[in-house]
Write a structure and sequence with these properties.
Protein name: MmsAB operon regulatory protein
GO molecular function, one term: DNA-binding transcription factor activity
Number of domains: 2
Pfam family, one: HTH_18
InterPro entries: AraC-bd, Homeodomain-like_sf, HTH-like, HTH_AraC, HTH_AraC-typ_CS, Tscrpt_reg_AraC-type_HTH
Number of strands: 9
Domain HTH araC/xylS-type: 188-286
CATH superfamily of the largest domain: Regulatory protein AraC
CATH architecture of the largest domain: Sandwich
Length: 286
């Protein structure tokens, strides 16, 4: 990567001896950083196509810029995320008349393609919107601090798992942003509706009507965001609440079942065991 900036540049390049260890260690070979940094003020980042299996991630914390990638030019602003696939050239240039802070990260590993795929499925040619996520900024700072903490095995293994956490979190935010933009309902509102009705049944007709969508489109969009059906999500929520009641109250299993809309305690117990792996009685005793 060729990179220049006016000042306040922080760059961490993982030494070759350490990269060789990361590539083979069972706790790090799946995903590891190759280099990363934080650039302030005027930013210019570019790379030429080269033979490697390294993904390049750019996350704009402040400012505005322009991305040239795959023969397209895009405006980049605060909260925008860029992911460049291996062996592809690109150029990112910040606007000189704005305060700019950009995090950048190069990563590789046996699971790099899988993590990248999770991100790219909700991006358009490597460009996506996640918003200004303080948790992600904090994770970047934690990774950058690796340089000052030293390259001990414990520090590096921790950094690798922070990287996995951060990429997973960004993939989730991409899905949420895409969902909110293309949907007429809020998952938060649906969750609130479910919480308020844990004591009874909620069918797909009611949920879809509340969201002002057809049953088909509501179920499709809900599963796209949560990887499960609306009804199964509601049942999961009921079982989670049952676990809380078993842990924190003296209510009988029958009382807990009735409070969650299940008139048959035996059916509730079978459902609970199917979901949790043990019966409500065993759960309480454990």
């Amino acid at each position: 990567m060729k990179k220049t900036s006016t000042f306040n540049d922080i760059r961490l390049l993982i030494p070759m001896f350490l990269l060789n260890k990361l590539k083979v260690h069972p706790l790090t070979q799946g995903l590891y950083p190759v280099s990363l940094g934080k650039t302030n003020q005027q930013v210019h980042i570019e790379t030429q196509a080269q033979s490697s299996q390294i993904y390049q991630l750019i996350y704009c914390q402040y400012g505005e810029g322009v991305l040239q990638y795959k023969n397209k030019q895009r405006s980049v602003k605060r909260g925008d995320l860029i992911l460049i696939s291996p062996n592809l050239a690109f150029q990112y240039q910040s606007k000189s008349d704005s305060k700019n802070t950009v995090y950048w990260l190069n990563f590789s590993g046996k699971l790099a393609d899988d993590f990248a795929e999770r991100l790219l499925m909700k991006m358009e040619d490597g460009f996506g919107v996640v918003g200004a996520q303080e948790l992600a900024f904090k994770d970047f700072e934690t990774l950058i601090q690796l340089g000052s903490r030293g390259y001990t095995a414990t520090n590096v293994i921790h950094a690798v798992h922070v990287l996995q956490q951060m990429l997973s979190f960004l993939a989730l935010q991409l899905r949420l942003e895409s969902f909110n933009v293309h949907s007429t309902f809020s998952l938060e509102m649906i969750e609130s509706l479910m919480q308020e009705n844990l004591h009874q049944e909620l069918n797909l007709d009611t949920l879809a009507h509340y969201s002002q969508l057809s049953k088909f489109h509501f179920a499709k969009k809900f599963k796209e965001l949560t990887d499960t059906s609306p009804i199964q999500y509601f049942i999961n929520m009921k079982i989670q609440h049952a676990c809380f009641q078993l842990d924190n109250t003296e209510d009988t299993i029958k009382q807990i079942a009735e409070s969650l809309g299940y008139s048959d305690p035996y059916y509730f117990s079978r459902l609970f065991k199917k979901m949790v792996g043990i019966s409500p009685k065993q759960y309480r005793q454990s």
